[in-house]
Specification:
Elements (H helix, E strand, L loop, with lengths): L3 E2 L11 H8 L34 E10 L2 E9 L9 E9 L5 E9 L6 E3 L4 E6 L2 E10 L6 E8 L7 E2 L24 E4 L5 E7 L1 E7 L6 E7 L5 E10 L2 E8 L9 E7 L7 E7 L11 E5 L2 E8 L15 E7 L18 H5 L1
Parallel strand pairs: 1-5
Antiparallel strand pairs: 2-3, 3-4, 4-5, 6-8, 7-8, 8-9, 9-10, 11-12, 12-13, 13-14, 15-16, 16-17, 17-18, 19-20, 20-21
The structure holds beta-L-arabinofuranose.
Length: about 350
């Protein structure tokens, strides 16, 4: 089944099953009717397991996958923009799967208000496991004591939270990147632990930066280095496969395109030098933004993205009403990534094989 039960619907009792299902179906949800003799398989209109978008009862954005044991956790922002509002993002959500077909909604793991020094904007995030704890890095708008955006860090003993502010202040503020041209350049953290155990953080909008984290995970260690690749817009994602390091990001060639695509660079070391490898995807359907998140899970590689093609009730997709998707990611023998075409079928076809 393609099932994604909203958090509030996940109850073992469900005494009024039919009513609950009707209520849970805000546009999507195929529910496994365990024990029901009436159920004869998915209706023709129901999407196949693994189809896009993954979440259909909420607008979600900025996907960040994390594998823990046999489970893939997916952290997202929650898009709640109304009418023509650009963004309205107040909390982060987490979903999990063990098979890439059935997703469990764990509800919000944190709200931007949980960072007392932050004003608004639960923007892009990524969680990472280190020394048995889960560290959550996220972009937010700082209060008036620092201009523009900042990067927060929170911690939990579980991938599904609750997460708490780990520092009581921002990890990265605007003044730490003085070369930047605008107040929202310090967004979209990506975190990566290298083979020597050092964890690195990269982030940025228009400018892309990288720095080491101290073992305590809540302080920058040493210099901040600019590594901006061609057409870099935002949403960097660091990963490694074999001996190759990848920096994948939302790119925008403003002279040619209106909407972001995904591009990437590779390097022989986390410290570069980075070589531009071109575009990995086109734009997300109806979406100005796109946001890559890459992970290997149970032997396959996946590229998470978002588009704005989901409609919920009378609300169409929009810049601030996006939907997270996932596609298979494949590599060429030389380590370059094969271009990814965004589909409605998502990973459903390959999972069926
Ligand atoms: O979701 C808010 C912002 O839009 C993110 O931080 C960017 O990556 C873009 O997706």
């Amino acid at each position: 089944m393609h099932s994604l039960l909203p958090h509030r619907c996940r109850t073992k009792e469900l005494p009024y099953l039919a009513k609950a299902i009707a209520w849970c179906r805000t546009g999507i949800v195929a529910v496994a009717l365990a024990g029901s003799t009436a159920y004869a398989g998915p209706a023709a209109s129901e999407p196949a397991p693994g189809s896009n978008p993954i979440v259909r009862d909420k607008f979600t954005a900025d996907p960040a996958p994390l594998v823990v044991g046999d489970t893939l956790y997916l952290y997202t922002g929650h898009d709640e923009a109304q009418r023509d509002e650009m963004f309205n993002m107040r909390e982060w959500l987490v979903y999990s799967t063990t098979d890439m077909k059935t997703w469990t909604d764990h509800g919000p793991i944190m709200r931007v208000a949980d960072f007392k020094w932050a004003k608004q904007d639960a923007w892009a995030s990524q969680a990472i496991e280190k020394n048995g704890r889960f560290w959550f890095y996220a972009a937010v708008e700082h209060d008036a004591t620092h201009p523009g955006k900042a990067i927060a860090v929170a911690v939990s003993d579980s991938p599904t939270g609750p997460f708490v502010d780990a520092k009581g202040s921002a990890l990265i503020v605007n003044e730490m990147t003085p070369k930047g041209t605008h107040s929202w350049e310090d967004i979209d953290p990506t975190v990566f632990t290298d083979d020597d155990g050092t964890t690195w953080i990269a982030w940025g909008n228009r400018q892309c930066y990288i720095a080491r984290l101290k073992p305590n995970m809540i302080e920058i260690d040493g210099p901040i280095t600019e590594i901006t690749p061609p057409n870099f817009e935002e949403g960097p994602w660091l990963h490694k496969r074999g001996d190759i390091y990848y920096l994948t990001y939302a790119s925008l060639d403003r002279s040619k395109h209106r909407d972001e695509k995904v591009s990437y660079a590779t390097a022989p070391s986390i410290q570069g030098p980075w070589t531009y490898r071109g575009e990995l995807t086109g734009s997300g359907k109806y979406s100005f933004t796109i946001h890559p998140g890459i992970v290997q899970f149970k032997g396959r590689w996946y590229l998470f993205l978002h588009n704005a093609a989901l409609t919920i009730g009378d609300q169409n997709g929009a810049i601030g009403r996006r939907a997270v998707t996932v596609e298979n990611l494949e590599y060429n023998p030389d380590g370059t990534m094969k271009p990814v075409v965004q589909t409605d079928a998502g990973v459903s076809a390959s999972l069926a094989r």
